[in-house]
Task: structure prediction
Amino acid sequence: MRILITNDDGINAPGLQVLTRIAQDIAGPTGEVWTVAPAFEQSGVGHCISYTHPTMIAELAPRRFAAEGSPADCVIAGLYDVMHDARPDLVLSGVNRGNNAAENTLYSGTIGGAMEAALQGIPAIALSQYFGPDNRDLADPFDAAIQHGADVVRRLMARDLWDEADYRLFYNVNFPPVAGADVKGMRAAAQGFRRGTHFSAEAQTSPSGRRFLWVRGGTQDVPTDPGTDAAVNLDGYISVTPMRADLTDRAMLPLLQEALA
Result:
């Protein structure tokens, strides 16, 4: 198996080292793991692509490349440059430092990398590690992802839970904010919504008198509806959410058509 991995925390991120171990486990001794990751942190860029300027790419080691672009750029670079002779069988994106559950999903570069792979017709999984008081001070806060990441990927691959629709299915996996030994299991979960919390901006003035805005994230320990992603994560379970890039609200179409008639 040939696997392409990327992330949004950057080529030197600890989570990418974790993902490399997961991918090597899945690929096996006869497989190949290729890395194309952002040269610098690209958190929060979503599905952004560098459409108006070129992306510099550099080979750091065999099968290991850094690109000055977003995770989606890195996937495109992997498919059409680095691995152009033989496309990967699977794309893995992560392991993100922090959760990509609920509304975080919409901003996530980790999700953007997996989404681009799906749009290119390749099976893809985004993986993220929730952080909280029960794991952030561990020797390795990615412990849950380390212990259970390969198993989650294997289950999704073994059950052939994929399709070839125009907007192809991909998966969003979030590991709970606990030690690996304390993970209770896996749950299929819809994307949730954290009520009463949201991204915001905080103004600061520099020593030179210029005004800057810092974007602040919302509170992450707010549970979503029962059975949805952040809720099951905070209860100690790995959430697995099937996703597509199609944003159409199909249930609304008949009512909209009637209103527009």
Remarks:
- The chain has a mean pLDDT of 97.
